[in-house]
């Protein structure tokens, strides 16, 4: 099936665009969340996003094991939305997982997903060079991950100021 990769900055409208694209499809939809509610603000943010989705959506949480969650969700729904890969990468980095191997597993999961799959990520490489080593590593790893996912995606859309710009595909 098709893989759509939606990237953009914080509050760019990328999640809204990705959700709207998925909701244009018929059938049942799965939302795979990678965020972890570490504080009250994040809990509120997650609740707000859940309220924005209607009854067609099933939500799964996959802060670490994203490829398996995609495989699981694709067996019982007609489309899968993952939001967001950048938080997933943060979770992996902080848990000291092999980022290269995890990204390779994600690429394979995307390529073998039998239903339309939309992946959302932040574009974090447009700003200044971070001052600390962990932030620089995160920025560099996010850039590498985004390149690899864009490579397997059928369509890549950059969203800025709520406006989608197609970088690859239709």
Q: What kind of sheet is the major sheet?
A: 7 strands, mixed
Going by CATH, the homologous superfamily would be P-loop containing nucleotide triphosphate hydrolases
Q: How many helix segments?
A: 6
Radius of gyration: 15 Å
Strand order of the biggest β-sheet:
3-2-4-5-1-6-7
Instruction: Kindly state the percentage of residues in helix.
Output: 40-55%
Low-confidence stretches: none
Q: Which H/E pattern describes the elements?
A: EHEHEHEHHEHEE
Q: Which topology does CATH recognise?
A: Rossmann fold
What distance lies between the first and last C-alpha atoms, to the nearest angstrom?
Answer: 14 Å
Task: Return the CATH class.
Answer: Alpha Beta
Whole-number total of structural domains? 1
Number of DSSP E strands: 7
Mean pLDDT score: 94
**Architecture, according to CATH?**
3-Layer(aba) Sandwich
What would you call the shape?
Answer: globular
* Fraction of residues in β-strands: 15-25%
SSE class: alpha/beta
Pathway: Cofactor biosynthesis; adenosylcobalamin biosynthesis; adenosylcobalamin from cob(II)yrinate a,c-diamide: step 5/7; Cofactor biosynthesis; adenosylcobalamin biosynthesis; adenosylcobalamin from cob(II)yrinate a,c-diamide: step 6/7
InterPro entries: CobU/CobP (IPR003203), P-loop_NTPase (IPR027417)
Family: Belongs to the CobU/CobP family.
EC number: 2.7.1.156, 2.7.7.62
């Amino acid at each position: 099936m098709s893989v759509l990769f939606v990237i953009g900055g914080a509050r760019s409208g990328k999640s809204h665009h990705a959700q709207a694209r998925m909701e244009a499809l018929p059938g049942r939809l799965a939302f795979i969340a990678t965020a972890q509610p570490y504080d009250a603000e994040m809990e509120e943010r997650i609740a707000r996003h859940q309220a924005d989705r209607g009854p067609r959506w099933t939500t799964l949480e996959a802060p670490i094991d994203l490829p398996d969650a995609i495989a699981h969700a694709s067996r019982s729904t007609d489309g899968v939305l993952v939001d967001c890969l950048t938080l997933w990468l943060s979770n992996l980095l902080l848990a000291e997982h092999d980022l290269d191997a995890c990204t390779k597993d994600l690429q394979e999961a995307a390529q073998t997903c039998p239903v339309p799959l939309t992946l959302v990520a932040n574009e974090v490489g447009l700003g200044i060079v971070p001052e600390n080593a962990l932030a620089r590593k995160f920025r560099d790893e996010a850039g590498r991950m985004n390149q690899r996912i864009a490579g397997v995606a059928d369509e890549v859309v950059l969203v800025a100021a709520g406006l989608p710009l197609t970088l690859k595909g239709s």
